[in-house]
């Protein structure tokens, strides 16, 4: 029942958004006739395209991905620009109305008769039409420009970020330990093998001690994406490559992917901990696993741990640090947020996650969140470029 309510609500929201776009971009900018009919049909088609894409890509209809997700991005920025324009548009309309009300009415004086008002043409509708068209053109060009920039950023190579994080309990012998951190690769309808190969090459060039892949590797089954993920077997590191599940693995046949990444040479950390010289490296399952009886189990992960040893935890979602802090975790490495992916969506992400991008602290535990190397949904990144991070640990 909950799923049905959510779907109905989501469809209603999509419908209302497209109704608003139709009003501002079609009805307000055209007169009754063929152009308005064509715009109305386009609005209906695009309104249907959104849910068709979200559903179709989940059942293998990947041809919907490019048109559907691109429209999602343009739609998102159209809504933002048009809403921002509502205030100046209202002010302009009020100014036109006042101008009309204050204009003197010319009269003609007939020979020997009373004054006669000449026939007048009401130019207000033409002015309102011109105003609406100007706003629509501005909104369309702005949304297209931002989306174009975002596409170029999202499809380009991830940027390499380097961050040094001091840990008080890190022994001197582990000073300078380097962890290549990557998350949210999102192999799927819009990203394939070439994407994986580029990321693997970036990580190998780091010459890191540890590789950490912290979830959301895929958006599809092993059968669909096994070839795309295959380059992961070429990952190189001195002390191993490790993997924890993200929420999207639970939409994609998580157990098959756990087995597949293990076959490719990455060790899945499934609510478990291992020792790397003077450091404990731990990993917990994603919160989405709770619906599959495969959720995070911090008690199991840290059972019998030596409290004098520092702990680095791999966990897909930053919010998991609230539980990790109860077990004295020194540093949590996460992804999930995409850095917000599309400004100003990052403001919404902050309502759910305590850290959206970069280094923060949650209840005394340091949390570093990478933007992720891929994207979900629209192939667009604005204000949050794709990222692979080299984390260097220093003793204090």
From TrEMBL:
<dbReference type="InterPro" id="IPR029052">
    <property type="entry name" value="Metallo-depent_PP-like"/>
</dbReference>
<dbReference type="InterPro" id="IPR004843">
    <property type="entry name" value="Calcineurin-like_PHP"/>
</dbReference>
<dbReference type="Pfam" id="PF00149">
    <property type="entry name" value="Metallophos"/>
</dbReference>
<feature type="transmembrane region" description="Helical">
    <location>
        <begin position="69"/>
        <end position="92"/>
    </location>
</feature>
<feature type="transmembrane region" description="Helical">
    <location>
        <begin position="6"/>
        <end position="26"/>
    </location>
</feature>
<keyword id="KW-0378">Hydrolase</keyword>
<protein>
    <submittedName>
        <fullName>Metallophosphoesterase</fullName>
    </submittedName>
</protein>
<keyword id="KW-0479">Metal-binding</keyword>
<keyword id="KW-0812">Transmembrane</keyword>
<feature type="transmembrane region" description="Helical">
    <location>
        <begin position="38"/>
        <end position="57"/>
    </location>
</feature>
<feature type="domain" description="Calcineurin-like phosphoesterase">
    <location>
        <begin position="177"/>
        <end position="339"/>
    </location>
</feature>
<feature type="transmembrane region" description="Helical">
    <location>
        <begin position="130"/>
        <end position="151"/>
    </location>
</feature>
<keyword id="KW-1133">Transmembrane helix</keyword>
<keyword id="KW-0472">Membrane</keyword>
<dbReference type="InterPro" id="IPR051158">
    <property type="entry name" value="Metallophosphoesterase_sf"/>
</dbReference>
């Amino acid at each position: 029942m909950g799923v049905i309510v959510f779907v109905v609500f989501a469809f209603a929201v999509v419908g209302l958004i497209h109704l608003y776009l139709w009003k501002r971009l079609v009805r307000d900018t055209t007169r009754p006739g063929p152009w308005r009919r064509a715009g109305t049909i386009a609005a209906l088609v695009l309104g249907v395209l959104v849910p068709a894409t979200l559903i179709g890509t989940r059942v293998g209809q990947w041809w919907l991905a490019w048109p559907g997700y691109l429209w999602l991005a343009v739609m998102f920025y159209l809504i933002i620009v048009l809403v921002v324009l509502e205030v100046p548009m209202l002010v302009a309309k009020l100014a036109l109305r006042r101008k009309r009300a204050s204009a003197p009415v010319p009269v003609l004086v007939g020979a020997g008769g009373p004054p006669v008002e000449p026939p007048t043409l009401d130019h207000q509708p033409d002015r309102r039409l011109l105003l609406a068209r100007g706003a629509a053109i501005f909104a369309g060009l702005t949304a297209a420009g931002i989306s174009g920039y975002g596409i170029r950023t999202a499809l380009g190579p991830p940027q390499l970020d380097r961050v040094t994080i001091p840990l008080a309990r890190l022994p001197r012998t582990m000073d300078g330990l380097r962890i290549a951190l990557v998350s949210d690769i999102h192999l799927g309808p819009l990203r394939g093998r070439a994407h994986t190969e580029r990321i693997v090459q970036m990580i190998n060039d780091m010459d890191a001690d540890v590789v950490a892949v912290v979830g959301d590797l895929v958006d599809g089954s092993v059968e669909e994406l096994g070839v795309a993920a295959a380059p992961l077997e070429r990952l190189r590191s001195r002390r191993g490559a490790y993997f924890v599940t993200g929420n999207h693995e639970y939409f994609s046949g998580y157990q098959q992917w756990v087995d597949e990444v293990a076959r490719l040479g990455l060790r899945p950390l499934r609510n478990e901990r291992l020792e790397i010289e003077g450091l404990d490296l731990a990993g917990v399952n994603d919160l989405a696993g709770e619906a599959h009886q495969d959720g995070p189990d911090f008690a199991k992960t840290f059972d019998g741990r030596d409290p004098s040893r520092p702990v680095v935890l791999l966990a897909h979602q930053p919010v998991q640090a609230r539980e990790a802090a109860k077990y004295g975790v020194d540093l949590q490495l996460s992804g999930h947020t995409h850095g917000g992916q599309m400004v100003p969506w990052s403001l919404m992400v902050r309502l759910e996650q305590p850290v959206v991008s970069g280094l923060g602290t949650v209840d005394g535990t340091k949390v570093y969140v990478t933007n992720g190397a891929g994207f979900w949904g629209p192939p667009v990144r604005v204000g949050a470029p794709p990222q692979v991070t080299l984390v260097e640990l220093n003793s204090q």
